[in-house]
Amino acid sequence: MDLTIECTQRAADEKPKKLRREGTLPAVLYGHNGQESVALKLSNYDAEALLRKATVNKSVITVNVSDMPWTGKVILREVQKHPWKNKIHHLSFSRFHLKKKLK
After folding, report:
1. Is residue 26 within 8 Å of 42, Cβ to Cβ?
2. Angle at CA 77, nearest 5°, toward 72 and 83?
3. 57: which residues sit within 8 A by CB, 6+ positions away?
4. Which domain holds residue 54?
5. At 53, which CATH number?
6. Residues 70, 32: contact at Cβ < 8 Å?
7. Residue 102 lies inside a defined structural domain of this protein
8. Does the pLDDT value for residue 101 go beyond 60?
């Protein structure tokens, strides 16, 4: 099963709380370029659709970042949810190299 998600780069002055009110979700991509991380945002609808199919630390997902132009394979590392509203608060993706063994 091929999982793909579209993201855009998040500006440094964009507050996560404001993004959630607007229907977008903050996310982060670790290991994009060596040790660097990139702040992202994606549609709340796309994130919920992704989580119906993906499993944390197991599913390989293709992420397309339209602002950078970057496309690569990642693993969903963490899903943060609101404690009692059960809404997604934040997603963390981790890039990996296809030649290295996953732990």
Report:
1. no
2. 135
3. 75, 76, 77
4. 3-95
5. 2.40.240.10
6. yes
7. no
8. no
Q: Percentage of the chain surpassing pLDDT 70?
A: 90
Q: Are 29 and 93 in contact (CB under 8 A)?
A: yes
Three-state secondary structure readout of the chain: CCEEEEEEECCCCCCHHHHHHCCEEEEEEEEEECCEEEEEEEEHHHHHHHHHHCCCCCCEEEEEECCCCEEEEEEEEEEEECCCCCCEEEEEEEECCCCCCCC
- Quick check: 98 pLDDT over 70? no
| Torsional sign, CA 12, 16, 18, 20 | positive
Which tokens go with 60? 């390989």
Q: How far apart are CA 40 and CA 46, in angstroms?
A: 13
